[in-house]
Task: inverse folding
DNA sequence: TTGACATATATAGAAATATCGATATAATAG
DNA sequence: CTATTATATCGATATTTCTATATATGTCAA
């Protein structure tokens, strides 16, 4: 876990918003999950296209952002067929919160 | 308190180090405090010149960094004569740690 | 006041990052 | 196989950040 990478990932408003939206996918991505059986969809996260639509940046930009956030450890992804679902890596996030509280 | 500004301030290794060094000034700036009476020096923080020497960047860069970190709320400064002493703004920092834990 | 030193600000070139359109890849449907 | 859809990657350009030099401001001491 590289603190600098995490801080960089969070120092952009769109990326920070994505992380916050993913705290409550049902609320922020209401029409998502059309592709897949219900029991899979939210648990697996939100697909790139839905995030892009909400974030209002180009598809390539959102893909880049998600990749960056995943590399930083904030997100994790699962692929179902042609869709990649991103969700928060809660363990890494709360681990980092703890690091911040004690070490920073 | 603007989270984005705080994340930006912390997304540079030198700036992050400065914040960490200032957790224990006696340890990281052993020869500091030559200018002033003991009871004032550490309580008031560490002067720009000492931070510059440790950080090994130019004087203008360190001044710029410290200003940025102060604007983000991470540091506060006191001026004694011609010296400006910077120290951590512990209240803001732990407030932000709490924000991170609960909101991010 | 003058000169020496500490810090701040202005500016500018270099480096890094952001962001888009285009293209590539991969999965699925027909 | 071919067409379609979702996502990833590439290449180019725009923007931001980094960091230095130069300059200005403020303080102290003689």
Result:
């Amino acid at each position: 876990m590289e603190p600098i990478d995490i801080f960089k990932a969070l120092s952009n408003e769109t990326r920070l918003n994505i992380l916050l939206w993913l705290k409550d996918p049902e609320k922020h991505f209401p029409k998502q999950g059309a592709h897949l059986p219900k029991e899979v969809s939210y648990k697996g996260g939100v697909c790139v296209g839905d995030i892009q639509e909400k974030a209002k940046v180009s598809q390539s930009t959102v893909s880049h952002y998600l990749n960056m956030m995943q590399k930083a450890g904030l997100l994790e992804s699962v692929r179902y067929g042609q869709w990649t679902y991103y969700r928060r890596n809660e363990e890494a996030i709360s681990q980092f919160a703890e690091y911040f509280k004690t070490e920073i």
Q: What stands out?
A: Chain A touches chain B through 20 residues (CB under 8 Å).
